[in-house]
Amino acid sequence: MSEQPRDPRLVVEVLSEALPYIQRFSGKTVVVKYGGNAMTEDTLIDSFARDMVLMKEVGINPVVVHGGGPQIGELLAKLQIESRFVNGMRVTDAETMDVVEMVLGGLVNKSIVNLINQCGGKAIGLTGKDGAQIRARQLKVEHKTPEMAASEIIDIGHVGEVEHISTDLIEMLTARDFIPVIAPIGVDAEGRSYNINADLVAGKVAEALQAEKLMLLTNVAGLMDAGGEVLTGLTTEQVDALISDGTIHGGMLPKIRCALEAVKGGVASSHIIDGRVPHATLLEIFTNAGVGTLISNQPAPGETA
Question: By three-state DSSP, how is residue 79 classified?
């Protein structure tokens, strides 16, 4: 069955709706964490690449930070290297770290770069080691069970947290109309490499750049209330209250904390958006409805997502 032609009037309406947002965000920086379904389904991969190119074409400066956990797991399995997790984090010895660097800094990173370039953009792939952009330190993980009198510190190897972000290289690339694509690998003062959660890196990069927006693509519709409705247009105070009363819990909590810290650190707004929706980033930026949860210090009048 042939595809029905689009009504040109609808196309014009969409462009008209997008105009004030294009004017408002032109020249601004938007940091996008790319992962989940958006990275594994062909139609979503294509729409994401096109979104980044279109954003750049209308004067917005996208900076992409990507994950790659499933791809790392697949290669480890092929190499018959066991994957172990503590509190949801991959135990990363020296051998596993070599695989992480190959997958994140090589296979996944260059695939994203190629897709954006094929859509007419100018993307350049980086890791946090390039230009010493991401200074890291080893993450200390505390573990405690009800039977334990005190918590213990577990060494999970080359898993890190962000100590400092240098923005010189990113700013140079965006000023020359490139789209930076960053793998979340950091380096410490002794040159040791660390695998860092991509959400955390994206949040810290957004803070360092004082970005207009931080956009975290996820596999859910957004932050839900007790009735299953998406919450949006939230202030940082409201999010703190939702954490305190237990509305935000489980796997969503680290992502929300990341978004919250970015706003408290100077990012104008953070967005938890549904990466399963084609063109999710454009829908969130350029339409009145949006496709996820927005967090800011003071939501703009009439802006819901």
Answer: coil
**Quick one: which H or E segment has residue 294?**
strand 292-296
Task: Provide φ and ψ at 193, rounded to 5°.
Answer: -90, 150
What residues contact residue 210 under an 8 Å CB cut-off, 6+ apart? 29, 266, 267
* Rounded Cα distance, 113 and 180, in Å: 9
Cβ–Cβ < 8 Å for 147, 26 = no
Residue 63 is which amino acid?
V
Q: What is the rounded CA–CA span in Å between residue 143 and residue 43? A: 40
Place of tokens 């999970």: 156
Q: Give the separation between CA 152 and CA 142, rounded to whole angstroms.
A: 6
19: which strand partners? none
- Tokens linked to 52: 């980044």
Q: Which of 198, 182, 30 is nearest to 109 (CA)?
A: 182
Phi then psi for residue 79, to 5 deg, are -85, 0
pLDDT in tens, 2-46: 455 666 776 677 778 888 889 999 999 999 999 876 777 788 888
Q: Phi/psi at 153 (nearest 5 deg)?
A: -95, 125
Count the alpha carbons within 13 Å of 67 in the hemisphere toward its beta carbon.
18
Return the pLDDT at 202: 97
**Rounded distance between C-alpha atoms, residue 60 and residue 280, angstroms:** 16
Amino acid at 193: S
Question: Helix, strand, coil proportions of the chain in percent (round to 5)?
Answer: 40, 25, 35
CA distance 299 to 305: 9
**Cβ–Cβ < 8 Å for 27, 175:** no
Q: How confident is the model at residue 242 (pLDDT cuts 50, 70, 90)?
A: confident
Candidates 302, 231, 234, 218; CA nearest to 17 is 302
pTM: 0.89
